[in-house]
């Protein structure tokens, strides 16, 4: 019953409690919720290993816009300007059908109980675990928004060519610090990016028609074959080419070697901010340290401005408000 979670967890971030969210939220109302999520994920990821990455990213793009409220799942309507049309999401964000499949199964077993926002959070955790990453106790009880924010999606989600200051500022606005920025960027240990997201680094990083000097030479040559100067914008390259479907710390090792794919990846090391530079090195050295911090940061990100109590609703269909 939704009445389990109450109180108003105003604001975002902070480290302590889950803003009224509880790991046991569905203990009586839908005890099978995580089993159902994981069983759908197993099939989806077997069909297409990249899906784990896509679902992890979906939760990030939800939480950074109005908090983790499934605003990202709403389609265009008379009252909704869909976030799916934003610069970071258009032609890029994916996994919606898997969320629909999970929602449909849950509506059969426990109708009207599990929010779309919690499904997205559970899918992100399940995808991490099924890819070999850490597990964590996930606070639940988020409710779904009746609104979306296309401008929020355009403004709050960092672009791939961000400077380190850019990244720190945009994370800080969500209550996330440098340790969260570096560990969560480690989500790029799985999945891919389109040529358009890294092309600038290959051909014109600083408006001087030169490549990014921090790009390792051989990697640079390889990337040019995937991503030519003109055309090929939708060609894809793994974010962590050493292990694109395994959740491990090789993403950080590659950064140390000048083989991070996005500017936003490489500047964690080269951006002249001691804290992030040091953490890249620590996580490259010590995978368990990365896993621990990633789990903590995912809980923190998942706690951004949830709708609880009588706020929001539990959508029947994740694409539309009730
Ligand atoms: C730090 C700032 C971040 C920036 C600038 C950034 C940027 C990007 C970009 C540009 C892509 C490729 C999109 C495309 O070309 O279609 C991408 C993919 C991805 N991002 Fe991020 N990201 C950031 C943080 C995060 C966080 C916090 C997570 C999750 C914890 C995450 C998880 C992913 C995943 C898993 C993919 C691959 C998705 C797929 O293969 O479908 N990213 N990111
Ligand atoms: Ca949202
Ligand atoms: Ca990896």
Automatic annotation (TrEMBL):
<feature type="disulfide bond">
    <location>
        <begin position="195"/>
        <end position="227"/>
    </location>
</feature>
<comment type="function">
    <text>Removal of H(2)O(2), oxidation of toxic reductants, biosynthesis and degradation of lignin, suberization, auxin catabolism, response to environmental stresses such as wounding, pathogen attack and oxidative stress. These functions might be dependent on each isozyme/isoform in each plant tissue.</text>
</comment>
<keyword id="KW-0325">Glycoprotein</keyword>
<keyword id="KW-0732">Signal</keyword>
<feature type="binding site">
    <location>
        <position position="62"/>
    </location>
    <ligand>
        <name>Ca(2+) 1</name>
    </ligand>
</feature>
<feature type="binding site">
    <location>
        <position position="158"/>
    </location>
    <ligand>
        <name>substrate</name>
    </ligand>
</feature>
<feature type="binding site">
    <location>
        <position position="69"/>
    </location>
    <ligand>
        <name>Ca(2+) 1</name>
    </ligand>
</feature>
<keyword id="KW-0964">Secreted</keyword>
<feature type="domain" description="Plant heme peroxidase family profile">
    <location>
        <begin position="20"/>
        <end position="322"/>
    </location>
</feature>
<keyword id="KW-1015">Disulfide bond</keyword>
<feature type="site" description="Transition state stabilizer">
    <location>
        <position position="57"/>
    </location>
</feature>
<dbReference type="InterPro" id="IPR010255">
    <property type="entry name" value="Haem_peroxidase_sf"/>
</dbReference>
<feature type="binding site">
    <location>
        <position position="65"/>
    </location>
    <ligand>
        <name>Ca(2+) 1</name>
    </ligand>
</feature>
<keyword id="KW-0575">Peroxidase</keyword>
<dbReference type="Pfam" id="PF00141">
    <property type="entry name" value="peroxidase"/>
</dbReference>
<feature type="binding site">
    <location>
        <position position="240"/>
    </location>
    <ligand>
        <name>Ca(2+) 2</name>
    </ligand>
</feature>
<feature type="binding site" description="axial binding residue">
    <location>
        <position position="188"/>
    </location>
    <ligand>
        <name>heme b</name>
    </ligand>
</feature>
<dbReference type="InterPro" id="IPR033905">
    <property type="entry name" value="Secretory_peroxidase"/>
</dbReference>
<dbReference type="GO" id="GO:0005576">
    <property type="term" value="C:extracellular region"/>
</dbReference>
<dbReference type="GO" id="GO:0042744">
    <property type="term" value="P:hydrogen peroxide catabolic process"/>
</dbReference>
<keyword id="KW-0376">Hydrogen peroxide</keyword>
<dbReference type="GO" id="GO:0140825">
    <property type="term" value="F:lactoperoxidase activity"/>
</dbReference>
<keyword id="KW-0349">Heme</keyword>
<feature type="binding site">
    <location>
        <position position="83"/>
    </location>
    <ligand>
        <name>Ca(2+) 1</name>
    </ligand>
</feature>
<feature type="binding site">
    <location>
        <position position="189"/>
    </location>
    <ligand>
        <name>Ca(2+) 2</name>
    </ligand>
</feature>
<feature type="disulfide bond">
    <location>
        <begin position="30"/>
        <end position="110"/>
    </location>
</feature>
<feature type="binding site">
    <location>
        <position position="248"/>
    </location>
    <ligand>
        <name>Ca(2+) 2</name>
    </ligand>
</feature>
<dbReference type="GO" id="GO:0006979">
    <property type="term" value="P:response to oxidative stress"/>
</dbReference>
<keyword id="KW-0106">Calcium</keyword>
<dbReference type="InterPro" id="IPR019794">
    <property type="entry name" value="Peroxidases_AS"/>
</dbReference>
<feature type="disulfide bond">
    <location>
        <begin position="63"/>
        <end position="68"/>
    </location>
</feature>
<feature type="active site" description="Proton acceptor">
    <location>
        <position position="61"/>
    </location>
</feature>
<dbReference type="GO" id="GO:0046872">
    <property type="term" value="F:metal ion binding"/>
</dbReference>
<keyword id="KW-0479">Metal-binding</keyword>
<protein>
    <recommendedName>
        <fullName>Peroxidase</fullName>
        <ecNumber>1.11.1.7</ecNumber>
    </recommendedName>
</protein>
<feature type="binding site">
    <location>
        <position position="67"/>
    </location>
    <ligand>
        <name>Ca(2+) 1</name>
    </ligand>
</feature>
<dbReference type="InterPro" id="IPR019793">
    <property type="entry name" value="Peroxidases_heam-ligand_BS"/>
</dbReference>
<keyword id="KW-0408">Iron</keyword>
<comment type="similarity">
    <text>Belongs to the peroxidase family. Classical plant (class III) peroxidase subfamily.</text>
</comment>
<dbReference type="InterPro" id="IPR002016">
    <property type="entry name" value="Haem_peroxidase"/>
</dbReference>
<keyword id="KW-0560">Oxidoreductase</keyword>
<comment type="similarity">
    <text>Belongs to the peroxidase family. Ascorbate peroxidase subfamily.</text>
</comment>
């Amino acid at each position: 019953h939704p009445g389990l979670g109450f109180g108003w967890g105003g604001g975002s971030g902070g480290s302590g409690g889950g803003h009224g969210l509880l790991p046991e939220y569905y203990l009586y109302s839908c005890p099978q919720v995580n089993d159902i999520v994981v069983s759908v994920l197993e099939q989806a990821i077997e069909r297409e290993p990249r899906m784990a990455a896509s679902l992890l990213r979906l939760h990030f793009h939800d939480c950074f816009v109005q908090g983790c409220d499934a605003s990202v799942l709403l389609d265009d309507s008379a009252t909704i300007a869909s976030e799916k049309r934003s610069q970071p999401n258009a032609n890029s964000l994916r996994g919606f059908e898997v969320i629909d499949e999970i929602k449909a199964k849950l509506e059969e077993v426990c109708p009207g109980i599990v929010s779309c926002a919690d499904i997205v959070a559970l899918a992100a955790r399940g995808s991490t675990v099924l890819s070999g990453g850490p597990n964590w106790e996930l606070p639940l009880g988020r409710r779904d928004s009746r609104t979306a924010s296309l401008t929020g999606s355009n403004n709050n989600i960092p672009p791939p060519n961000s400077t380190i200051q850019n990244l720190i500022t945009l994370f800080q606005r969500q209550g996330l610090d440098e340790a969260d920025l570096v560990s969560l960027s480690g989500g790029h240990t799985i999945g891919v990016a389109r040529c358009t997201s890294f092309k600038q680094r290959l051909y014109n990083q600083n408006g001087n028609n030169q490549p990014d000097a921090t790009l390792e030479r051989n990697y640079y040559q390889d990337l040019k074959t995937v991503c030519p100067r003109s055309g090929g914008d939708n060609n894809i390259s793994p974010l962590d080419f050493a292990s694109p479907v395994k959740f491990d710390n090789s993403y950080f090792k590659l950064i140390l070697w000048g083989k991070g794919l996005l500017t936003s990846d490489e500047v964690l090391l080269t951006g002249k901010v001691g804290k992030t530079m040091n953490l890249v090195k620590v996580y490259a050295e010590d995978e368990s340290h990365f896993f621990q911090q990633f789990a903590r940061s995912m809980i923190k990100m998942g706690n951004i401005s949830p709708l609880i109590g009588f706020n929001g609703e539990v959508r029947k269909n994740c694409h539309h408000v009730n």
